[in-house]
Task: inverse folding
């Protein structure tokens, strides 16, 4: 029965094959790459592959078999036509996303620009009433402009020394009262320093006036006092005559001058200019319209010629929230007072506001203040509205980033947010708020108002723009940075460390080779360094994605340079040249990163530029210096062979004294060509002095050691009569100065010293016998 079943199956299969062969003889079955449902069903009905006799079915069968997944038990012969196996992409790794510390949430947030890669960023600029300094400044430009004008007018009247003395004494009375009332420790310390300086200058002028000194002496002493007392004198003049200053141009001359100085300082620091720069004085019409918009939306009110922001009305609206940045500061009148500064509303006008938390959008001008026309009368913009109107005019109803100093969070930035969102009727005027940390000097906040600051020009007189940039880069942008000698020394050491690496790589790349010689085989050392290279690149990228952590990024770069230096040193010890292409790749990467950080200017592909005015000094002079170095090397070789010591001395003189004066360093290397490096002259001269100091100290140590070696053991203790009174025949002490026998412990200690001196003295005798 079983055999009959197989026979019937074979018979049915043969009939199917013949019918299918007839059907396929007139049709194409190779169109497309996937079998149809009919193909699959027909294929499943066949028990085995067709014979060669049924050529059409056989071709069809092989085609379908090749497209069908292989089943268990199939042999390679039954697979038919071979095809490519399935492919799947690698899983990959997570890509770092840029995260920024957002003051609106007080945590790091993933940065998502609102419009693709276009980022809208507004940053509060300086209040240009004085020299730009290394930190942020307080808003006092109107008062300073008025005071400067009055002080200038006072000087033009050429007051007599007696008049100056009398005016300073008069001005000192309210100043002393102010000093006594001040409780803030930093402000009090500043006022005390000022008072001490005035006091020191008062005495000599008082003596000169009382003794009727010569005119020149009186004038000189008066000018010293005028310079030391200009701050308290200008305060007094302002209180007496400030209300008489009404010309608007007086208030524009000061910022115009200092803005020019500010731009010069920024250029000197290699700070790129913004796309748009806004000046309050040019945006008064826009500010007036902005204030009108806030009033029209129901969040502002006019009172006695001024316009105030209604904080309660704004905060009660479900769509808004007042003081997003520092909600705990609401109601802090001290913070509000400090934020408004010297021009805040006086106590007698507090009744103009519905709430003490309300702030001025537009202020009715008082005598001695600049003024512009407005629907509410003559006045001037409130402090906070300036930024809102200017930023809103350029960036619109929402920006990606707003930046500024940490101390501007409240009330300035919180009030900016409130009035801007009141104008635009939204809750997202700023998406990310970035606040930079304070800059301090010896632990005290840098501040113009506290007279505790260093100007950028002063800083640049002591250090280069690159060194100042590195100092900032080596610290977190949102944390406090203390400007000190230690901070700058760290930056200088980092610069020197990186620069030395660049110089070494450039020296290696100057070694002659043909095109194919550039591509050397990678051994284990190169593979390991390359692995570290890509790990450090990844770490740098991750650090910068983590709230732009330049400090960690520089540390990773420093580690990469350290690993590269270790590699080069190992190759040098083995008298082998390092891999050029690998070191070049590392140097190119580090250069590009430092260019991104603004620490390198110019277009040179590797390292810090040498020479100014856009000239590539290195490429110009190195060929000539290389010829000189090769010639010197040939001279040294002949001099050593012929034992001409004077020539060797001249070669050393060229290396150690002549070329450093030109900013050139030659490094003689045993078994390798002399290295030629261009380094700034000041650095080389400092290195030379340090080398001389080390040599001098070494000589002193050697001379002291020699002098000690010459002392005979029998004499070493005999001179110490203040300690010992009796000695044995070898000069070893037996009794102290009082005649008491030495203790065993002390005798044991002295014996060790005696034996050590015996050894030194024997070494000295041996050296003299050998003629050394």
Result:
């Amino acid at each position: 029965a079983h055999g009959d079943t197989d026979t019937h199956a074979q018979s049915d299969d043969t009939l199917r094959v013949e019918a299918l062969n007839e059907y396929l003889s007139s049709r194409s079955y190779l169109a497309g790459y996937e079998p149809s449902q009919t193909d699959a069903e027909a294929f499943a009905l066949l028990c085995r592959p067709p014979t060669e006799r049924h050529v059409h079915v056989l071709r069809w069968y092989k085609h379908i078999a090749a497209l069908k997944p292989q089943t268990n038990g199939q042999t390679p012969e039954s697979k038919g036509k071979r095809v490519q196996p399935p492919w799947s992409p690698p899983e990959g790794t997570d890509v770092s996303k840029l995260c920024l510390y957002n003051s609106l949430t007080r945590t790091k947030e993933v940065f998502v620009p609102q419009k693709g890669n276009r980022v809208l960023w507004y940053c509060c600029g300086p209040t240009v009433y004085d020299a730009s300094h290394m930190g942020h400044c307080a808003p006092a430009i109107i008062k300073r402009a008025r005071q400067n004008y009055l002080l200038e007018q006072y000087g033009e009247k050429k007051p007599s020394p007696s008049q100056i003395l009398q005016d300073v004494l008069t001005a000192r009375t309210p100043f002393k009262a102010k000093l006594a009332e001040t409780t803030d420790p930093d402000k009090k310390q500043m006022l005390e320093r000022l008072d001490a300086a005035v006091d020191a200058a008062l005495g000599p002028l008082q003596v000169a006036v009382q003794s009727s000194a010569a005119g020149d002496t009186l004038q000189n002493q008066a000018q010293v006092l005028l310079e030391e007392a200009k701050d308290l004198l200008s305060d007094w003049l302002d209180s007496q005559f400030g209300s008489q200053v009404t010309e608007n141009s007086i208030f524009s001359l000061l910022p115009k001058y200092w803005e020019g100085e500010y731009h010069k300082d920024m250029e000197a620091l290699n700070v790129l200019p913004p796309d748009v720069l806004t000046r309050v004085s040019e945006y008064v019409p826009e500010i007036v319209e902005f204030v009108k918009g806030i009033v029209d939306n129901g969040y502002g009110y006019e009172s006695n010629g001024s316009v105030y922001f209604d904080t309660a009305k704004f905060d009660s609206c479900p769509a808004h929230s007042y003081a997003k940045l520092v909600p705990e500061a609401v109601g802090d009148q001290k913070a509000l007072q400090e934020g408004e500064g010297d021009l805040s509303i006086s106590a007698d006008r507090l009744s103009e506001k519905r709430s003490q938390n309300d702030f001025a959008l537009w202020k009715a001008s008082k005598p001695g203040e600049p003024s512009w026309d407005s629907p509410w009368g003559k006045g001037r913009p409130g402090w906070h509205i300036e930024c809102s109107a200017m930023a809103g005019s350029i960036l619109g109803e929402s920006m990606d980033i707003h930046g500024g100093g940490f101390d501007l969070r409240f009330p300035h930035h919180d009030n900016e947010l409130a009035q801007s969102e009141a104008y635009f009727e939204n809750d997202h005027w700023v998406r990310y708020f970035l606040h930079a940390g304070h800059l301090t000097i010896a632990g005290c906040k840098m501040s113009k108002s506290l007279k505790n600051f260093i100007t950028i020009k002063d800083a640049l007189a002591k250090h280069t723009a690159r060194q100042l940039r590195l100092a900032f880069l080596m610290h977190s942008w949102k944390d406090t940075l203390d400007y000190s000698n230690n901070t700058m020394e760290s930056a200088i050491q980092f610069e020197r460390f990186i620069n030395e690496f660049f110089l070494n790589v450039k020296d290696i790349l100057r070694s002659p080779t043909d095109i194919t010689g550039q591509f050397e085989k990678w051994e284990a050392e190169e593979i390991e360094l390359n692995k570290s290279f890509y790990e450090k690149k990844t770490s740098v990228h991750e650090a910068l994605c983590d709230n732009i952590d330049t400090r960690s990024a520089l540390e990773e770069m420093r580690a990469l340079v350290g690993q590269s230096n270790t590699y080069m040193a190992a190759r040098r010890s083995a008298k082998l040249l390092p891999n050029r292409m690998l070191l070049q790749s590392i140097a190119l990467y580090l250069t590009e990163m430092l260019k991104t950080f603004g620490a390198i200017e110019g277009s040179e592909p590797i390292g810090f530029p040498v020479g100014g005015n856009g000239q590539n000094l290195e490429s110009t002079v190195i060929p000539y210096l290389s010829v000189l170095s090769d010639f010197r090397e040939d001279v040294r070789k002949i001099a050593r062979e012929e034992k001409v010591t004077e020539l060797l001395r001249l070669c050393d003189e060229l290396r150690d004294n002549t070329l450093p004066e030109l900013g050139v360093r030659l490094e003689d290397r045993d078994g390798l060509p002399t290295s030629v490096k261009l380094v700034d002259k000041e650095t080389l001269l400092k290195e030379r002095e340090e080398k001389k100091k080390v040599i001098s100290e070494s000589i002193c140590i050697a001379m002291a050691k020699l002098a000690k070696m010459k002392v005979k053991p029998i004499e070493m203790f005999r001179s110490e009569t203040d300690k010992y009174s009796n000695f044995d025949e070898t000069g070893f002490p037996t009794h102290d100065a009082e005649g008491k026998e030495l203790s065993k412990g002390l005798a044991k200690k002295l014996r060790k010293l005696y034996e050590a001196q015996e050894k030194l003295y024997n070494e000295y005798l041996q050296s003299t016998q050998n003629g050394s």
User: Anything to note?
Assistant: Residues 681-710 form the longest helix (30 residues). Confidence is low (pLDDT under 50) at residues 134-140. The chain is about 55% helix and 10% strand.
